[in-house]
Amino acid sequence: MSKVQPAIISCGFSEHASKRSDVNMAELVNEAIEDCLKKTNVDWKDIDALVNGNMPAFEGANIPELWMGDHMAAYNKPMLRVTTGGTTGGSVTIAGYYSVASGIHDMVLVVGFEQQSCGDTSVGLGSVGLGEFSIFPYIGYTYDRLLANFGAGAAIGVASYQAMNYMRRSRATEEDLARVVVQNRRNAAKNWWTHLKMPTITIEDVLDTPYISYPLRFGMVCPTSDGACAMLITTEEKARQIVDIPVYINGVASYSNESAIIGIDCGGAGQVDPCEQLGAMKSAEVAYGQAGISFPNKEIDYAEVYSPFPNQELMWVERIGLFEENTAPEAYRNGVTAFNGELPINCSGGVNSTNAIGASAMERPAEAALQIMGKAGNQVPKTIHTAVGHGWGGSINLITHVVMSDEPQRKFK
């Protein structure tokens, strides 16, 4: 097995907005890459290989990297494409990690992006499901039942069901959900690249918006964003020569467990309660194990979790071991997760404030890495040694984890 220790040396972003009509997709991606490269002395020619990803069905542009190659410095270089739904950015990061850890490449540029204003995300989601739904009539699935499944409400429908289950378990209130939104949107206002910047938003403002699907209100829901994120991953030796504080990737994992909303007639066997999230717990366990972390609630200094909806943020921080079950609402009430708290969460504003889907799960480890470097836009006051970036996607059941530190973990034997 290779003994190469991968490290992040730079992260970059494009400006995010609901509609970046001033640039095309290639120019949007180039913004993030230029921002990433200008923070180091790495030149385009120093990049050995690339990993990129987005959800092409959302824009209606298949294999977009073929026409944006010059904007990505990809000419005559190996490139890998990854698409895994909401976790695309996390999966791209993990693929870049293995490209270096395997010893195949020394300097890998990873890029996640989405320009959703070019297409229709709902239609794109429908196209993903069409392959499964098209076979149902041949196995006795009636048209009426098929229509009923299409009326499930897409992401917000699933998230509201998940929210109800979590609130029942934890006794969290709508005010607790709104508090998460307020913390995220105020944090986002301190970062130049984010989408929803609301420095004066209050809990009352959030609760004053109408319901979309109870208990989730319009003011609680993530935006649809155009944007891109880029990251440079290299070897430990090169990283030490290039930056003062390399961010070592010490653990990665990606796990999925079957969701009850897939399968014949929503008959998936694995996940009756969408709050259970066995895949999240297993993914965290494996990533922490690789990184040598036994007590994440004591050893993790900072976390970025993928939470388009506020109930998910409360749920994820419990499922990945940062808080005991059903205690997250109280931690948020007491300021534990705030910018200056004991365990800051999502000081970037998170997915609840910025959601360029192909980039979102990469922006989590990217922002966590910048916190370790001391270069984040909303840099926390305490020193960050160890952090985790979490991704979520699929049918509420696919999870990625990237565990990072300012010291390498000698996990390869």
Notes on the structure:
There is one protein chain. The protein has one domain (6-119, 227-405): 3-Layer(aba) Sandwich (Peroxisomal Thiolase, Chain A, domain 1), CATH 3.40.47. 37% of the residues lie in helices and 17% in strands. It has helices at residues 25-37, 56-59, 88-101, 121-133, 143-150, 154-170, 174-188, 203-207, 236-242, 278-291, 296-299, 310-319, 328-333, 350-353, 357-373; strands at residues 6-13, 49-53, 79-81, 107-115, 211-213, 216-217, 226-235, 247-256, 302-304, 386-393, 398-405. The protein has a nine-stranded mixed β-sheet with strand order 3-2-4-7-1-8-11-10-9. Strand 10 (386-393) and strand 11 (398-405) form a beta hairpin. Helix 3 (88-101) packs across helix 15 and helix 7 packs across helix 12 (310-319).
